[in-house]
Amino acid sequence: MPKILGESLEAHRREVRSRVFDVLRAQLYERGFDAITLAGVASAAGVGRTALYNHFPDKESLLVAFVEDEAAQYVTRLTDAVEAQADPVDQLATFVRLQLRVLAEYHMPPGTALASALAPAAYRRISAHADPITDRLRAILAGGVDLGRWPAEDPDVLIPMITAALGNRTLVDGPAEQLEDVVEAAVRFVLRAVGATI
C-alpha cells in the first residue's frame, strides 16, 4: 500500500500537490516546460510516480492544475491588497506594483510559448485565470472615473494597453536592486496613461 502523507486522505492530497507544485515551479524556472517530465517531478518531490499519475495523468494536466492554483492564490492576494486602499489612485498603483512584483517572482513561460506547448483547450483554461485580474482592473478604472480621479475612457481600450505594459518581462529581468525603481516608474507611467489626478 502506498505511503500516505499527512493524517488523512485530504491532507495527503494537499501535501502531494504542494510538493509537486514546489518542484514544478523550480523546474519551470531552471529548465522550461519542454524539459520537464512527470517522472522527474515525482522523483524530486519525493512522491511515487503512481501517486503523481493519480493526481495528474500527463504533463499538461499538471501545468494546468499548477497555474490554476497559482492564479487562485494571486487573485486572493491582489483582492486583499487593492481592497486595503480606499482611493482609486492608490488602488491602481497597488495593482501595478503587485503585477510587476509577481512577474518578477514567477518565471512561467510567456503566453505564446504556453500556447504552442499546450492543446488549445488547456491553454484556454489557463488563459481564463486572467479574467478575475482583468475584472479587478476594470473595477479600479470605473471607480476612478466615478470619483473623478481620471477621465472616462473606454476600458476595453485601456485594459489591454495597461496589461501589455505590465506583462513585459524585460521590465523585471534586470538587476534585482533596480526592481523597485522600475516598479515605481511603471506606476507613474500607468497613472499618467489613465490621466490620474494625484
TrEMBL record:
Q: Which InterPro entries match?
A: DNA-bd_HTH_TetR-type_CS, Homeodomain-like_sf, HTH-type_TetR-like_transc_reg, HTH_TetR, Tet_transcr_reg_TetR-rel_C_sf
Q: Which UniProt keywords apply?
A: DNA-binding, Transcription, Transcription regulation
Q: List residues of the HTH tetR-type domain.
A: 14-74
* Matching Gene3D superfamilies: Tetracycline Repressor, domain 2
GO molecular function: any one?
DNA-binding transcription factor activity
Q: Which residues bind DNA?
A: 37-56
Q: Which PROSITE patterns does the UniProt entry name for this protein? A: HTH_TETR_1, HTH_TETR_2
**Would I find Transcription among this entry's keywords?**
yes
Which superkingdom? Bacteria
Q: What is this protein called?
A: TetR family transcriptional regulator
